[in-house]
Structures are given as C-alpha cells and as structure tokens.
Write a structure and sequence with these properties.
With about 575 residues, this protein is an alpha/beta fold. It has helices at about 1-15, 20-55, 65-110, 110-120, 125-165, 180-200, 205-230, 230-235, 240-290, 295-315, 315-345, 400-410, 440-445, 455-460, 485-490, 490-505, 520-535, 545-550, and strands at about 165-170, 175-180, 350-355, 360-370, 375-385, 390-395, 415-420, 425-430, 435-440, 480-485, 510-515, 540-545, 555-560. It has 18 helices and 13 strands. The chain starts with a helix and ends in a 9-residue tail after the last strand.
Length: about 575
C-alpha cells in the first residue's frame, strides 16, 4: 500500500496537469484497443469449436469459409495489437518527457543539485533521471495494460468456461457433490496455489533489484570519474590503483548478480513447471466428458482455449511478479530522490537578493559559517561594500574564504545571520565550467547565446585568447561548432575563456575565487587589469594568493576563524 501511495504521488502531476485530458484520452483509446482484441479472442474461441468439430466430422466443404473467417479475425486482432502497442509507446514517452523535465528542473533549480552532494544522498541522480524515469513510465503503463487485459479476458472467458463446464456431480465418500462451473473452480484453485508459491519463491527479488541498481550505478559513476580525471590519474601513474577500485565495485555487482540469479533460477524453475502443467490441466479435466461423449472434440478445444485465458487471468500476479518487483524498486528509488529534493528545498537560504538594483552592493550582518557537522569556520562577519570597489578577502588557507563565497552564491546552507546582494552578479570558482557546446554558447554561459560575433571576438581578444600560438586562435571564426573544451584548452586558457564572460555580461557584482591561479603572475595581472579597465562600475570581491593580483584590490578584509569579524 505504501508503494501505491508513492506511485500516485509521482504520477499525479502528469495525469492531472495541463494536458491531463489528452493523456486520459490516449489511455482510454489504449484500453479500447485492448478490449477489442479480447472480444476478437472470444470470437476465435467460438471458431475453435466449429473448426475442430468440422475437422472431426471430415467436413471439407465448410473449411474454406472457416479459414477465411479465421484470417479476418487475425487481421483485426493484429491491427488492435499493433495500434495499441504504438499508442502505448507514445504515451510512455510523453510521461517520460514530463517526468524528466520535472525532475531536471527540480534538481537544478535553487542549487539543489549541489546541496544533495553535501549529504551524499541520494546516490547517482543521473541514473534516476536517465533510466529510472523511463522504467517507471514503461512498467507502469505496461503493467496497467496487462492488468486491464486480464480483467477483460477473465470477464469474457469465465462465462464461456462456466457454460462449457456444465453441472458435474462427483461421488466423494459416498456422498454426491454437485459443482456448477467446476472448470472455473479448478482454474481458480490452481492459480491461487501457484500465486502463493511464486510469492514465496520470489519475495527476495525486490530488495535484490534495488541493490542491483545501486551497485550498477556506483560502478558506472566510478568509470565516469576515471574518464573525467584521466590526465590526473595518468600523471600519478594511478592505473593500478584505479583498477583496484573498479574491481572492488565490480565485485559488489558480481555478488549481487549471484544472489539475484539464484533467486531468479528458483522462480524460473517454478514458472516453467507452472506453464507446462497449465497446458495439461484442461485436457485432463475434460477428458472424462469427452470419453463419455457428452462433449465434442470442438468443445474440448474451446474449453482448452477458454481455460487457458481464465487461468492466465487468475494467475496474472504470478506471471507479472518479477515486473511488479522491478516496478516497486524503481518507485522506491524515484520516491527517495523526490523526497531528497523536497528536503533540500526546505533548507533554502534566506538571503535577500535584488538583481534590479542600479548598482552593486553587498551587505553581511552577523554572518556565522560552520561545517556540515556544526564546527565553526567563520563567526560574526559584518561587511558592507559598494561598487565600484575591489574588495580582497584574506586569511590563512582553509579558514573558509571559499565557503563564504559559497554562502553568498546560495550553495552552502550551514550558516546563521543574514546577507543581501543587490545587483546582477557572476561567480567565478577556481575550476571554471565550460559546457560541451559551441564557442558562442560557452562564452555566453549561463545566459542566452550572444548573437554579436564582433563582440564575442573582441572579449576573447581582450582576455588574450587571440594569440596566433594559442589553441583557440583557429576557432575564433568558428563560433557555432560544439567542442569538448576541457580537452582542447589548457587550465589557464579555460580560466581566460571563463573570465571573458564577465567582459561580455558586465555584472554589477563579480566574485572571484582564485580565478587566475592557473596563470603565471604576469599573465594574471594583465588579465585582471583588463577586467578592471573594462568593468569600471563593478563591485569585485575576490580571493587570491598571487601578490600581483592582491595589489589591485583597494580594500582588504581579514577573516579570522572562530573569533574574528570582518569590519
């Protein structure tokens, strides 16, 4: 029941949203195709009786008409199945698209993607968005259609089977017991028995599937880390160490795989036995009536078909058990992700921000910053700064200067006190982020792509990326081709390209966290002088350990741990 509550919570936005009526219409049509195919199956079951009776009577004259009738039924049922499958895939993709957009937006807005990393939970959000969302939509629609199909199949064929069963009298212990529709009861008893066995055999599958997804995601994440840090690993000659780490994660997959396959082996053994016995039971049950000549050969074949359909309906849980387990595991993972996102939203920062202010201004009132465990980093910080000041934050390494900038950027929720930022702003971390995109989009990030080619080329020249010996020189006139910039440019060139954004966007407040630490002193000084010259009305708050850069700041704020206030 708890799984169903979590499922409805995840599904409600899609089915009750702006396009909810269209989704329900598509689902209704899908159900219509399913009901049509069941109706035709009933016609085919009746055809079975006529065909086999004609066959037993060696009635060749009726065969052409029966064959044409059967081909017509096949054409109709194939049309229903194909159209239903097509519509099902369309509906699944619509649901996947809606969920993907919803989770992506929720994950990225308010810096929640960063805050979730602070706690380490949930693990591997990339897998949950890219894979689990699709599985939820696919398995939910598939299981629902299968359930409706079985309900309709049961409703249609149980009446047929009840009629074919007639009234049977059995002498048990000297007493005559009359049973109406005894074949229906045989199917029911057999299905209940098999369902109980299936549950007992496969009850461990849910937790094993959840564990499998966790371990597969951890292994994939480790492979991605090796790819993203290939150069650093190569410099350290860390191939052997990384092989050991990857092996440990793969061994966890292997351990889960062994337990999962053992459980699936038991379930598949039972299922194979269940299917084979299911074929023989209706023949065994109707054989006495056929031998007593109270049932024709056609009746026997129709009974076999109808019994199979009714028994399938009763045994739906047995048939769908593994899919239900996988479905429940996906819901647990996505529900946990959704809960983590909602919790991250509840710790939203209380900063007062105003991007429409005519000039840049930063105010800190009694700001105290601590670690995730509650240990103090900086206490009682007071600061007021107005554009066009250049303010340098000073203090020993590890004191919390970068963490202070994270607080101001809305990334670090572990603080007390208040602060306000007035004016549009840009933050430049130590490691610049360059998306795999065009040069136009990369230099414009995170805003819409600038369409002024001359302006883009000008700011790139200003930050020193137009040198004939530079790796970007040949690409200056190719602004609309995507590249993997982290693989093309050096660390210093990446910082230059990142800082070109400041010249392009001209923020009122600019935060610099060791933004030139991969450049030599002379190059860094030249670049900062370009910023100072071209951003005369900008408030710059920076961190730097380069003496050449420190000299450009007109005001210095000394930060002291645990006691010191910045005034």
């Amino acid at each position: 029941m708890n799984i169903l509550k979590k499922f409805f919570y995840l599904a409600r936005p899609f089915w009750s949203g702006a396009h909810g009526r269209l989704q329900w219409l598509m689902l209704a049509v899908l159900i219509g195709f399913t009901l049509c195919s069941i109706t035709i199956s009933v016609w085919i079951a009746a055809w079975d009786k006529r065909f086999y009776d004609a066959l037993a009577a060696f009635d060749g004259a009726s065969m052409p008409a029966l064959i044409v009738e059967y081909l017509g039924y096949m054409a109709m049922i194939i049309g229903c199945i194909v159209c239903g499958d097509w519509l099902q895939k369309r509906l699944i993709f619509r649901w996947r698209t809606h969920l993907t957009e919803q989770f992506q937006k929720n994950w990225l807005e308010g810096h929640k993607h960063y805050r979730l990393r602070l706690t380490g939970e949930p693990d591997n959000p990339d897998q949950r968005i890219a894979e689990d969302i699709y599985l939820l939509a696919d398995k939910s629609i598939g299981l629902f259609r299968s359930f409706i199909n079985n309900i309709a199949k049961f409703s249609a064929f149980v009446a047929v089977l009840w009629t074919l069963s007639g009234v049977q009298t059995f002498n048990i212990g000297g007493r005559d017991i009359t049973i109406h529709g005894y074949l229906v009861w045989v199917a029911l008893i057999y299905s209940i028995f098999s369902t109980v066995i299936a549950h007992l055999v496969g009850r461990k599958l849910k937790n094993l599937n959840i564990d499998r997804q966790h371990r597969e995601a951890d292994y994939r994440a480790a492979l991605l880390r090796v790819r993203d840090h290939a150069e650093q690993i190569a410099f350290y000659n860390g191939g052997e160490a990384e092989t050991g780490r990857l092996k440990q994660r793969y061994l966890r997959i292997r351990d889960n795989w062994r337990r999962l396959t053992n459980c699936e082996f038991r379930q598949e053994t039972f299922w194979a036995t269940y299917v084979r016995i299911s074929i023989f039971i209706p023949i065994l049950a109707t054989l006495p009536m056929y031998l007593a000549k109270t049932m024709t050969f056609g009746d026997m074949m129709q009974t076999r078909t109808s019994f199979a359909r009714v028994q399938d309906s009763f045994g739906w849980f047995t048939d769908a058990y593994r899919r239900l387990i996988e479905w429940a595991a996906v819901i647990e993972r996505l529900s946990g992700f959704q809960t983590a996102l909602e919790q991250a939203e509840h710790i939203a920062l209380e900063a007062q921000t105003d991007t429409l202010h005519p000039s840049g201004k930063v105010t800190l009132q009694g700001l105290t910053i601590h670690t995730q465990t509650g240990s103090p980093l900086l206490t009682d910080i007071h600061l007021q700064a107005h554009s066009p000041e250049w303010v340098l934050l000073e203090g020993r390494s590890g004191i919390g200067k970068s963490t202070l900038l994270r607080v101001l950027a809305g990334l670090w929720p572990y603080y007390h006190g208040s602060f306000s930022l007035e004016g549009n702003r840009l933050f430049f971390p130590q490691r610049p982020y360059l998306p795999t995109d065009t040069l136009r989009q990369t230099v414009s990030y995170p805003y819409s792509a600038c369409q002024d080619d001359h302006l883009i080329q000008t700011v790139l020249e200003q930050v020193g990326l137009s040198s004939p010996t530079g790796r970007l020189h040949t690409l200056m006139n190719d602004l609309d081709t995507s590249y993997e910039w982290h693989g093309i440019l050096s660390g210093g060139e990446q910082q230059r390209l990142s800082l070109a954004r400041a010249l392009l966007h001209k923020p009122q407040i600019l935060f610099l966290d060791e933004a030139t630490n991969q450049l030599d002193g002379e190059s860094a000084l030249t670049l900062m002088q370009v910023l100072k010259q071209n951003l005369p009305d900008t408030l710059v708050i920076g961190i730097s350990h380069q003496p050449e850069i420190q000299a450009l700041f007109g005001r210095r704020i000394g930060l002291e741990d645990k006691t010191g206030g910045a005034q």
